[in-house]
Amino acid sequence: MPGLSGAERTTTVVIGTGLPGLAIASELRRRGVDSITVSRLESPGGQSFQKSGHQRCDDAEAASIQERNEILRHLRNYASSHQLDIRSDTSAVLLDKMGPGAEASLHRWAVHTPDGVLLADHIVLTRCAHSQLRRMLTDLGISIGTNLVAAMRAIGIYLVGVGELITPTPKEVLRQAKVVGQAISAKVYPDSVPSVLTGSFPALPAAAV
Questions:
Q1: Which residues are CB-contacts of 162 (< 8 A; sequence separation ≥ 6)?
Q2: CB-based burial of residue 41 (10 Å sphere; 0-12 exposed, 13-18 middle, 19+ buried)?
Q3: Are 117 and 94 in contact (CB under 8 A)?
Q4: Those residues with Cβ within 8 angstroms of residue 196's Cβ, 6 or more apart along the chain or in another chain
Q5: What are phi and psi of 129, to 5 degrees?
Q6: The pTM is what?
Q7: Contact 20, 126 (CB under 8 A)
């Protein structure tokens, strides 16, 4: 794969600088896992891969909006005070799975941006429709089967803030960030994290109850 000699290396690339992206970046920092967060992933057609027509479950209630804004304020303060690598003006234009070789043994993914290439072993996606995710995996030549989340986790891709029908609530986003943070930390530090944390990711909510 050309153009990797000057690539940046990190453990995790988080795609999305909204509440889900900041939540998982903060969770990873708390667990000693480095990450770089970029704004979004562009689709092959040039449109944002992360936009979808899903209903925002917190649009209808002022209390939920206030809660979301308060959590977002807290996460932004945490990101600033802990100098998290948040690149709000940088988007990912291409996501490549590394092939066999010495470089691939250390980094499974190459995230191409207008500013260069980011190499990482884990990718976290936010605000993506399941149909887009399935299409992306198919384009990468990856067999999906019936369990989308399991197929993605097997290749080092995780979801935070993604619901099948509606966007999860702020509290659900934080729960997902904690679970994903535990799972990635368990991969990075297998000897210091209880093995139970490497279990299957809970099913994402299909709809609000």
A1: 20, 125, 126, 127, 128, 130, 133, 168, 176, 204
A2: buried
A3: no
A4: none
A5: -75, 145
A6: 0.78
A7: yes
Query: Is 86 within 8 Å of 25 (Cβ atoms)?
Result: yes
Which tens digits make up the pLDDT trace of 74-98? 999 999 999 999 999 999 998 888 8
Share of the chain above pLDDT 70, in %: 73
The identity of residue 123, as a single letter, is I
3-class secondary-structure state, position 43: coil
CA atoms within 13 A on the CB side of 112: 13
Length of the chain equals: 209
Its sign, for the CA torsion 202, 205, 208, 209, is negative
Which backbone phi and psi does 174 adopt, to 5 degrees?
-65, -40
Question: Exposed, middle or buried, 64 (CB in 10 Å: 0-12/13-18/19+)?
Answer: middle
Chain-centre distance for alpha carbon 158: 5
Of residues 134 and 180, which shows the higher confidence score? 180
- What number of CA atoms fall less than 13 Å from residue 171's CA on the CB side? 5
